[in-house]
């Protein structure tokens, strides 16, 4: 294989390139693990191996903000030979953070996919954002991945967003590997990080490595399975970490290290034996005299079984920024995380060798149009072929097939099952759609599913539609108006918003029925700010944003009944409808849905089309509450009577029901519900009282104050309306020495005084 293919990823700064050109490839004499490549040779993504499905790994990098996800990804690409220089988030020259906004802010906004190989394994990796505003990016990436690497700041352990992404991985039953990054920080603590994984994530950490040294003296690792010591030598300015020394631990080594490794390995063996019955039997049978004599290969196999069964999570450590510990992490990805054929996808088996894929992301390219990311579950995908979209019930032609490498895409003729691809030409497909080879293929899969359902004498709901589960989109919590500079630009703005909505399903756009303004609804201040910036840069439209507003909800305080009659003549047709209904407040505190039911007598006499019209009328009334016109939740509607004359249209029935609903909701007494956020502030003890005093003014409720090394972690719930501009306020209060994260907790009723203040504000009286 010719590895000298020139690939235009000149990511590094001039300083990077000059530094590297003066280096020579060094490796210690003990044992070279063959991680080095010649300096001038950079692999092309065209050269990525295309192995058997068992050698493919689809993984995601997930973590809290600033834990080191992008830096870790950058090192992986460098050590596998796909980049010429080590990129740096602070310099804005990393491969996966390629958007202008990402490079300016030093954060990941969009998940980026890269494909590379490592020791005959093909790794499809997705680097995800850590900010809560972009949690959908993590959700849709995890939906199509087989394994994940959770990155932790070793000085902070489990943080707020770590718990959110961990819950998302748990929901999709994804096996994980933990990487304790930043072991070179003075406050880094292995024991604290492991304890926080146990207590906060309720996970079972299986420690596979022991660090050598701590803080600035962190120089390497000891692999507890093989007892090999790996040390990275050299200063951080000139040393890129490619070459490192590996040697078996000797009795002459540091006695403290030997003792710590011996204890940790014994704990590892006992822990794995508790979690894996096969390994326990092996220990008691062949190695009962000396557990420590168990072969490394057997122990590694047992750790893999424990990881795949999600009974435990392997824990590794290192420092990505200082180029230490990333190669063993790559080894762990190939050794412990599952191949696509080891994951159980029920629906896929009905398609056998036919194509079945899930579209999980759309990006817009100015030259190529919409590019759709797909995960291929079965069969293979070929360029210049027609595919059938089950969700849209339509056939589209795929003009080209690309291999993703961040913003550089390599054209390929075909791709097999288990991989992630990028397609050109699918103009109707959106996030969450299922793609198959043809309508006939989908019908054949349905027949197979129904045949098995009959043989098992059970009703399989999945047999009616063999579409893969899509992606859950969270509800937006912020909204604001957006206006073009001139009316001539209105059409361009609508086109831009349509493209951005297709890319980002968590962005909602609606038109205000009263003012006619376009309203942007998003996940947070940063989310809306980024959308505004993208419209300006990518579509050259200077838009004006109105003030940010909070997405309230409404409910009712008591039950009420109402009757309404509609009698209208349109043309030569007379439409007459009479509706009687009752609304009730749902007692469950956590209820966020609204239901509609019919009394038995009404249910039996109403035709299906009239029943559907009544339900549509109720649902449209739920969208606009009686107090401020916000959507209603926690309400149950009972239809008691419906009568209509022949020839009455369904639209008139819906209109009458909506009007009657509004009357009933007003009689029931409205209550505004405000979004309450779970807030986590990490702050030094000297500023704690200042932050607490500020929270009290913001109607915050303190839930807990925890210690994290030398800092305090403040957990509280605060109304979202009080958190506008909190980032700036917190920086001012603490002289920039605090960080915080926000996440939607629940919708809570406002007290009468706060509700009256809000009503006056909305009416322009305050």
UniProtKB/TrEMBL annotation:
Task: Spell out the subcellular localization from the entry.
Answer: Mitochondrion
Keyword match Glycoprotein: no
Q: Which residues form the Tr-type G domain?
A: 54-341
Q: Which InterPro entries match?
A: EFG2, EFG_II, EFG_III, EFG_III/V, EFG_V, EFG_V-like, EFTu-like_2, G_TR_CS
Q: So what does this thing catalyse?
A: GTP + H2O = GDP + phosphate + H(+)
Positions with a binding annotation for GTP: 63-70, 127-131, 181-184
Keywords (alphabetical) are: GTP-binding, Mitochondrion, Nucleotide-binding, Protein biosynthesis
User: Which PROSITE patterns has this protein been placed in?
Assistant: G_TR_1 (PS00301), G_TR_2 (PS51722)
Explain the purpose of this protein.
Mitochondrial GTPase that mediates the disassembly of ribosomes from messenger RNA at the termination of mitochondrial protein biosynthesis. Acts in collaboration with MRRF. GTP hydrolysis follows the ribosome disassembly and probably occurs on the ribosome large subunit. Not involved in the GTP-dependent ribosomal translocation step during translation elongation.
Family recorded in the similarity comment: Belongs to the TRAFAC class translation factor GTPase superfamily. Classic translation factor GTPase family. EF-G/EF-2 subfamily.
PANTHER family cross-referenced by the UniProt entry: RIBOSOME-RELEASING FACTOR 2, MITOCHONDRIAL, TRANSLATION ELONGATION FACTOR G-RELATED
Which NCBIfam families does this entry report, sorted A to Z? small_GTP
Query: Would you tell me the protein name for this molecule?
Result: Ribosome-releasing factor 2, mitochondrial
């Amino acid at each position: 294989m010719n590895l000298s293919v020139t690939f235009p990823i000149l990511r590094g700064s001039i300083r990077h390139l000059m530094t590297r050109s003066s280096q020579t490839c060094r490796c210690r004499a003990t044992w070279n693990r063959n991680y080095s490549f010649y300096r001038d040779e950079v692999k092309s993504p065209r050269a990525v191996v295309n192995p058997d499905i068992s050698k493919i790994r689809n993984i995601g990098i997930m973590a809290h903000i600033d834990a080191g996800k992008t830096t870790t990804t950058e090192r992986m690409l460098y050590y596998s030979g796909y980049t010429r220089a080590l990129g740096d988030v602070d310099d804005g020259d990393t491969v996966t953070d390629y958007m202008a906004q990402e490079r300016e802010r030093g954060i990941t906004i969009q998940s980026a996919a890269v494909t590379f190989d490592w020791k005959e394994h093909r790794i499809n990796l997705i680097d995800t954002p850590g900010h809560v505003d972009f949690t959908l990016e993590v959700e849709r990436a995890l939906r199509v991945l087989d394994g994940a690497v959770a990155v932790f700041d070793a000085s902070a352990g489990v943080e707020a967003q770590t718990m959110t992404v961990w819950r998302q991985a748990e929901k999709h039953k994804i096996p994980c590997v933990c990487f304790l990054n930043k072991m070179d920080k003075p406050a880094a603590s292995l024991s604290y990080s492991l304890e926080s994984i146990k207590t906060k994530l309720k996970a079972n950490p299986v420690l596979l490595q022991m660090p050598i040294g701590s803080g600035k003296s962190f120089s390497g690792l000891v692999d507890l399975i093989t007892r090999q010591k790996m040390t990275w030598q050299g200063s951080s300015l000139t040393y890129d970490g490619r070459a490192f020394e590996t040697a078996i631990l000797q009795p002459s080594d540091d006695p403290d290290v030997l003792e710590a490794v011996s204890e940790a390995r014994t704990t590892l063996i006992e822990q794995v034996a508790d979690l894996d019955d096969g390994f326990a039997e092996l220990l008691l049978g062949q190695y009962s005299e000396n557990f420590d004599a168990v072969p490394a290969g057997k122990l590694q196999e047992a750790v893999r079984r424990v990881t795949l069964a999600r009974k435990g999570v392997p824990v590794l450590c290192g420092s990505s920024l200082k180029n230490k510990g990333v190669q063993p992490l790559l080894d762990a990805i190939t050794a412990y995380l599952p191949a696509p054929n080891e994951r159980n996808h029920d629906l896929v088996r009905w398609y056998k060798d036919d194509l079945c894929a899930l579209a999980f992301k759309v990006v817009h390219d100015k030259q190529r149009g919409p590019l759709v990311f797909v995960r291929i579950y079965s069969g293979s995908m070929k360029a210049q072929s027609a595919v059938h979209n089950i969700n849209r019930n339509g056939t589209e032609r795929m003009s080209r097939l690309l291999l993703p490498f961040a913003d550089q895409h390599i054209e390929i003729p075909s791709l097999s099952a288990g991989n992630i691809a990028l397609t050109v030409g699918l103009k109707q497909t959106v996030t969450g759609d299922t793609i198959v080879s043809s309508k006939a293929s989908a019908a054949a899969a349905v027949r197979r599913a129904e045949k098995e359902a009959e043989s098992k004498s059970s009703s399989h709901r999945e047999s009616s539609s063999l579409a893969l589960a899509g992606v859950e989109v969270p509800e937006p919590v912020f909204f604001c108006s957006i206006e073009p500079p001139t009316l001539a630009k209105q059409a361009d703005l609508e086109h831009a918003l349509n493209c951005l909505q297709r890319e980002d399903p968590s962005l909602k756009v609606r038109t205000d029925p009263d003012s006619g303004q376009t309203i942007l609804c998003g996940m947070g201040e940063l989310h809306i700010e980024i959308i505004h910036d993208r419209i300006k840069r990518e579509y050259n439209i200077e838009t004006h944003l109105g003030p940010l507003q909070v997405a309230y909800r409404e409910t009712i305080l008591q039950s009420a009944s109402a009757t309404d009659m509609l009698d209208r003549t349109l043309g030569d047709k007379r439409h007459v409808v009479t509706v009687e209904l009752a609304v009730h407040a749902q007692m469950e505190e956590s209820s966020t849905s609204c239901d509609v039911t019919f009394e038995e007598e009404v249910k039996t006499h109403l035709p299906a089309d009239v029943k559907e019209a009544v339900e549509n009328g109720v649902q449209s009334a739920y969208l606009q509450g009686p107090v401020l016109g916000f959507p209603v939740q926690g309400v149950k509607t009972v239809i008691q009577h419906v009568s209509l004359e022949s020839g009455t249209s369904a639209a008139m029935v819906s209109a009458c029901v909506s009007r009657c609903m509004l009357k009933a909701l007003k009689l029931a007494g409205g209550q505004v519900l405000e979004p309450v956020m779970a807030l986590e502030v990490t702050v030094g003890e000297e500023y704690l009282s200042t932050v607490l005093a500020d929270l009290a003014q913001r109607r915050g409720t303190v839930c807990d104050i925890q210690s994290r090394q030398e800092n305090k972690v403040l957990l509280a719930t605060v109304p979202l309306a009080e958190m506008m501009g909190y980032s700036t306020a917190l920086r001012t209060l603490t002289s920039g020495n605090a960080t915080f994260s926000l996440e939607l907790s629940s919708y809570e009723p406002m007290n009468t005084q706060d509700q009256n203040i809000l009503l006056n504000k909305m009416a322009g009286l305050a």
